Amino acid sequence: MTLRHLRIFVAVCETGSMTAASAQMFIAQPSISLAISEMEEYYGVKLFDRISRKLYLTDNGRRALQYARHLIDLFDEMEQGIRDQDAVGQLRVGTSITIGTYLLPQYINRLKQVYPSVRVEAFIGNSGSVEQQILDNQIDIGVIEGVSHSSYILSESFQGDRLAFICSVEHAFAGRTLKELAEVKDQDFILREKGSAGREIFDGLLAAQELAVAPLWQSASNQAILHGVRSGLGISILPYSLVQESLKKGEIAEFKIKGMALSRKYSVIYHKNKFLSQSARTLVEICKGEEFPGNSKTG
């Protein structure tokens, strides 16, 4: 006995005929008749009296109808309850420091417009640590700068940012465009820690030109790096979105290198074997700027 049998039985009872039930359920009439016959054979009772080509519920049929409706309602309630749990459940998100500071709050606010009751737990670290959390199933999705390096992780890229070389306003490089990257190799650098996406890009750039720098400071704190640069302790390279306010205020200066534009994509990442709930998939779409239920794109 299956839920399909019960749904067919209820449809026949409510419409009064197998023909009408067939039309309502888009099921061939012989299949409707077979399902009713199988129910009667299974329980060993007649559910309908067939008189003058009309169907009349027997006492057993009326009792069966009560149970069938109750079971169908329970099943539908279970289905809806499980689906609704996605809207009131928990979503674990890991982000790199820059994204967690500047972008994640607006992403979560937009997600809350669709799923007001969803609980979002955020973990902020460098891109490498976010990848490891994905692999260890400590978070559901990650939002990082650059792309993942693991074959077990799927990446969906979106928008991007550029990296800016920065120095104090009194530094000799302030406002200049240098001829080549080699001009910075003897400078004191204040850099992000290894494992961060920005540091990885910069190290790759140096390696490509067979250059190396020995950082004076290494820090996971963007603000500490900004303070160090502002104080004239060294130069750095950070995401433009992070330093643009300080540049506008004249607290630090930017310098450029001829022919060199450093940009990178952001990526939403998740384990390739991970089932993404609807709320998680919606957050992915929000990050990528795509349309999602309850949202319409604006220019």
UniProtKB/TrEMBL annotation:
It comes from [Clostridium] citroniae WAL-19142. This is HTH lysR-type domain-containing protein. PANTHER family: HTH-TYPE TRANSCRIPTIONAL REGULATOR, LYSR FAMILY TRANSCRIPTIONAL REGULATOR. Residues 1-58 form the HTH lysR-type domain. Pfam families: HTH_1 (PF00126), LysR_substrate (PF03466). PROSITE patterns: HTH_LYSR. Gene3D superfamilies: 3.40.190.290, Winged helix-like DNA-binding domain superfamily/Winged helix DNA-binding domain. The lineage of its organism: Bacteria, Bacillati, Bacillota, Clostridia, Lachnospirales. Belongs to the LysR transcriptional regulatory family. Keywords: DNA-binding, Transcription, Transcription regulation. It comes from the Bacteria. GO terms for molecular function: DNA-binding transcription factor activity; transcription cis-regulatory region binding. InterPro entries: LysR_HTH_N, LysR_subst-bd, WH-like_DNA-bd_sf, WH_DNA-bd_sf.
